[in-house]
Each structure stands twice: as C-alpha cells, then as structure tokens.
Amino acid sequence: MEKTYKKGEDMPSGSLKPFLKQIGDDPLLTADEERNLSNLYQEGKRAKDQLLRKRSRSSQTVKLLERKAAEGEEARQKLIGSNLRLVISNTFKYARRLQQFPNDAIDINDLAQDGMLGLIRAVEDYDPEKARFSTYATWWIIQHMQRGLDNTVSTIRIPVYMVDRRRKVLKSEKLLQQRQGRQKIAIGDVARAPDLTEREVTEVSNLPWTISLDEPLPNDGSGSETERIKLTRDTVNVEAEALTQVLTSQLVEAMREALTPREQLVLQWRYWDGLNGPEIGKKLDLTKQRVERIENHARVKLAYHLKKPAQD
C-alpha cells in the first residue's frame, strides 16, 4: 500500500511514481500540435460512430474508418501523455491543502487519480479554437480534484456538538463582517460572542469542514502580477466554456442512457452539427418524414428521462 500524505509531512514523490515514470516519454506540445492531435481525435471519434452503425460498406471503407479510429485513439493517448505534467504540478501545488485533514484521511494517489480523470475529460471535450489546452485542462483537473476532496470530506465524521458550535462561530463572523466591512475577522474578535471562547473558535477553525482549491496560494514569487491577472482573466473565460461543456456532456450522457444509437445520431446531427431533415435522411437512407418521426420520438423519450428523479 502506498504511503499516505500526513499532516506536517513533505509529500513524497515516490507516492506518484506511476505518474512520474510516464513524464518525459512525451515532449511538450506546441499550439499547432495540440490542434492537430485534437482534430485527429475528433475524426477518430466520428469514425468509431460510423463503424458502430449497422450499414454495409466495402472492405476498403471499413479499413479506412478503422485506421482513422486507431489514429484518433493514438492522438488521444498522445495528448494525455504529453500533459501528465499538469496533473503532477497541480497535485504538488495543492497537496498542502491536505494538511487540513487528520491522520490518513486523504491518499495523495487519490488526488492524482482525480486529476487524471480531469485531464482525460479535457482531452475528450477540448476545442482548440477556444483556448490553449493547458489552460482548459488545468480547469478540469482542479475540478475533478475538488470533487474528490469534497467526497472525502463528506466521509469524515464530525461530532454534532461541533456542528452546533460552528453555527455560532459563523453567525458571529457574519455579524462582525457586516459591522467592520471586511471579510477576515480575527479569532479573538469572534470569541467575544456569547457562549464562545477563543479555544472553541480555534478548534472549529482547525476542523476539516471544507477544502477548496480555489483558495489563493501564498505568493512564492513565481510570475508577475500582470501574469497572474492574465491567468485569472483567461480562467474566467475558460470556466464559462467549461460550464457549457459540462451541461453538454450531461445531456450526451442522458442521450446514451435513454435513446437508441440511431436516435442519438439524429439528435446529434440535428442539434450539434446543424443538419436538416433531408441531409440526415441522406446519411441514414431514410425519408425526411421518417427522420422527423425519429427526432420527435427521441425528444419525447429524452425529456421523460431527464424529468425522472435521480436514482441513488
């Protein structure tokens, strides 16, 4: 079993050995290389979709589609391998957050694995016309790390009396923030509230209520203020785009669960690719009327599926 990262310890690089071994196998990519690999991957996805459709094709066409699908998968692996540094750098960067947790609450490998899932998600949804891959992928890596940390926090049991005490602390902080017009309130000031002591406020503050990767890291002197401002602005734009990607991905997942492959294709071509009925009909060897019936039926099924309550 891998050694876990405990409070007060330096993070051992050996715990990330599987990731570190892979770094260096693939060089950093230029913007053009990112674009080309992303396009190859998307072409490969489309080729896979065509291969999954039950249609008679010549052996030459099948071989062409299989080659494109293989090239797409190779491009996907190249994008992942060349950007493992992002997972490692963000794991090291945010590992200090783990010091908020007692004992072995979080395994550093879990943090890296969550970041890896974010990298894979970024590769699959990346649009090279929107941003550089490193910026887009970093957002997804941090999102997946945050989700993993949130899940871990929810498993840490906190006594009920401490939950009640925290309510008092938060109430006192809020009142002081309103009166003093500032966000950061000293522990001593909070402790002046009725039924609170400085020791109790400190205990509440030390418990792992939340862990956020959005908190600013101490300024280590790396990068100018202008660079940090630019990164912040870029991140805001990417976050808006990523939110759209999240909603789109959720819809795609619902389509996979509720619709037949042909119904999925009809909706994808109609609403993602902007094809009309006759164009879709030509692709599927169907009449315009038949395509419309499939589309309407698929929309009804999808709406019903989305309205169903989530199953635990």
From TrEMBL:
The keyword Manganese does not apply. Keywords: DNA-binding, Sigma factor, Transcription, Transcription regulation. Residues 19-46 form the RNA polymerase sigma-70 region 1.2 domain. GO terms for biological process: DNA-templated transcription initiation. GO terms for molecular function: DNA binding; sigma factor activity. Residues 81-148, 258-302 form the RNA polymerase sigma-70 region domain. The keyword DNA-binding applies. This is Sigma-70 family RNA polymerase sigma factor.
